[in-house]
Amino acid sequence: MTTISSRPLDSRVETPGRGGTRNPRRGRFRRHAWNYVFLIPMLLLFAGFTIWPMIASWWYSFFDWDGIGPPTEWIGAANFREILGSHAFWNAFGNSLLFSGAAIAIQMPLALFFALLLNNPRLRGRNLYRLLLFLPTVTTTAIVGIVFAIMLDPSGGFVNGLLQELKLVNQPINFLGSEHTALPTLIAIELWKDLGITLIYWLAALQTVPPDVRDAAAVDGAGRFQLLRHITLPILTPLAVVILLLTFQSSLNPFDLVQATTQGGPNFSTDVVSTYVYRYAFDPSVMAPQYGYACAAGVVFGVVTLLLTLVQAPLLRRRYLQTAR
Amino acid sequence: MNRGRRLQLVHIGLVPLMFIWIYPFIWIATAAFKSQREMLLGGLSVIPKHATLGNFSRAWSVADFGTYTVNTVIYAVGVVAVVLVISATAGYALGRGAMPGKRVVLALLIITMFVPHGYTIIPVFKLVNALGLNNSLAGAVLATAAPAHVVPILLFMGYFAGMPQELEDAARIDGAGYVRTFVQVMLPLAKPIIGTVALFNFVAAWNAFFIPLVFTLGQPSQRTLGVGMFAFFGQYTTDWTGLAAAACISLLPIIVVFLFLQRTFVEGMAGAIKI
After folding, report:
1. What is the per-residue pLDDT for B73?
2. Would you call B5 helix, strand, or coil by DSSP?
3. Which of A:255-294 have CB within 8 Å of B?
């Protein structure tokens, strides 16, 4: 997604071998040979750790396999049938999408709001504000998740202590221990954690709004909100699609936070696909891991997220064509 | 005047919000120095009455956070080293060479960027196992650094492609071969890219949880800080001051790194949307 250099890569004319005595073709071959040698480490690991796992996930998902020895018991599509009919899987799936939905519906506009605020060069200390808003994103999710769990503890935790002191609640709220509040609480923590990234994206996008366009509109008598609505936002739209895609992709995997705090509980109310897969494959308390089944769950979720990403692709294309025009 | 006043109103909203926003870090920094007794009695006071270092020594030696810190440094440095070597060499070959097959490799790399592969951990786990590296930091490093890091490769590629041909020719005339031209001439010039890639991968590795967790399940002595915190919390759920000290130990290095290098960090992130 990042800078693919716009410089022409192939335009350089290959200079034939140095002294005239050498065979130019041989010299070029030697240079290419080194290029291939330099690609080997990357290609080897790419094949082993990116391509192979994608293929193997599919392959394994057709087996009933506990992970000991090679998979032997071919069961066809039975894993997929079981997953598609599993209430627990769709529950985890829905929760994963809720994390994404919140990232798109709340985190993106909220970050845009802060970005518009902090983009004002007359606002003093705006770099400090940006720094503080961004701070949570560089910290370890698992660790701040546990800190939140402690602060939100119903017996003696800081937040409940404060709420009771202020007489806002009579009974302490069991934020992470109750089926009704656990998921919204985790989503809120994830928003707090990730807002800074989206903020940086928006601030970078705002730099693409040419000041003279704004000035011209201001001279023409456009008010603050007219400027925002008719100048800033339309210019931001193509980049907004990119930010949407980035936010969507990064929001799909809240494993660290969920596993560190609730492990999917209470009563699976915060279960997401990654914790679901983890439980079937790796959880030490599970005696017989089900690798085939876990792979199938990963494949189903991978396919759906790929489709959801592809749905956004034409949007991306259209926006680019629009700006190109 | 009107404008200035309106901006001051923004501060009235922002200052308390920022206080709440970073309160978890304030809580960590102060709770780590409170005695367990003071924490138990509750109270909302931020400043510890009798500051103690007992929590830190408990976290460092009893809960093994000394070991975890060393492990995390090894893991993060390992990841950075592998990613740098692989993406710099691949980026150099793709950026400066015009060999057949280059476009195919590039296309494959870019396609995999859009294919979700966060759910392919089981084959990776089996592969690392087959290499005999399960339950070791080396296995975790490999599982983290080996899947293609497309963005660093593209960064190096773009940078090397933009270097003047005269530079390469001059090195060649001076008798430097392909490898020496790369190591002694090109690589030193790519310091900005090396810095960005190293910083991002270091921070990501320091904060990683999923892969270190999966690869150290059978070997507690290999845990990284995040995994260690998870285990500590599972075992001593109520030792809040100890957990706060552990969180302090884990987060302080990365926050310091960030504060010193925030410009590089923010600019690197912002680059992600400029296609």
Report:
1. 96
2. helix
3. 255-256, 259-260, 273-274, 277-278, 281-282, 284, 291, 294
pLDDT for B1 equals 47
- Chain B residues with CB inside 8 Å of A12's CB? 98, 165
CA distances from A79 to A89, A106, A241, B87, B116 (A): 12, 36, 36, 38, 20
In angstroms, what separates the C-alpha of A180 from chain B's closest C-alpha?
23
Instruction: Indicate the residue of A36, A132, A302 with minimum beta-carbon distance to B21.
Output: A132
pLDDT at A21 over 80: no
Would you place residue A197 in the very low, low, confident or very high pLDDT band (cuts 50, 70, 90)?
Answer: very high
Q: What is the interface pTM, i.e. ipTM, of the complex? A: 0.91
CA A294/CA B120 separation, integer angstroms = 10
A152 contacts chain B (CB < 8 A): no
Task: Say how many Å lie between the first and final Cα of chain B, rounded.
Answer: 41
Residues of A in contact with B123 (CB under 8 A): 52-53, 56-57, 60, 295
Domain count, chain A: 1
**Yes or no, beta carbons of A135 and B22 under 8 Å apart:** yes
Q: Do A140 and B207 touch (CB under 8 A)?
A: yes
pLDDT at residue A32, as a whole number = 82
- Please compute the mean of the pLDDT values over residues A175-200 and round it to a whole number: 94
Torsion angle, alpha carbons of B111, A197, A297, A286, to 10: 130
pLDDT at A10 over 50: no
Neighboring chain B residues of A138 at a CB cutoff of 8 Å:
203, 207, 254-255, 258, 265
Residue A255 domain boundaries: 78-324
Burial label, A2 (beta-carbon count in 10 A; 0-12, 13-18, 19+) = middle
Q: Do A253 and B118 touch (CB under 8 A)?
A: yes
Q: For residue A196, is it within any domain?
A: yes
Backbone angles phi, psi at B252, to 5 degrees: -55, -50
Domain of A283, CATH number, reads: 1.10.3720.10
State how far residue A78 is from chain B, nearest Cα, in angstroms.
Answer: 19
Chains A, B: CB pairs < 8 Å: 299
Residues of chain B with pLDDT under 70: 1-4, 42-43, 116-118, 274-275
Contacts of A60 in chain B (CB under 8 A): 122-123
Using CA coordinates, name the residue in chain B closest to A310: B114
* pLDDT average, residue stretch A63-78: 85
Q: How far apart are CA A227 and CA A175, in angstroms?
A: 42
- In chain B, the domains with their CATH numbers are 69-273 (1.10.3720.10)
pTM exceeds 0.90 for this model: no
Q: What is the pLDDT of residues A130-182, one digit of tens each?
A: 999 999 999 999 999 999 999 999 888 889 888 888 888 888 889 999 999 99
For the record, the structure tokens of A205 come out as: 């996008």
* Full 3-state SS string of A85-136: CCHHHHHHHHHHHHHHHHHHHHHHHHHHHHHHHHCCCCCCCHHHHHHHHHHH
* Residues of B with Cβ-Cβ distance to A165 under 8 angstroms: 44
Neighbours of B34 (CB within 10 A): 26
Contact status of A168 with chain B (Cβ, < 8 Å)? no
By C-alpha distance, the chain A residue nearest B232 is A146
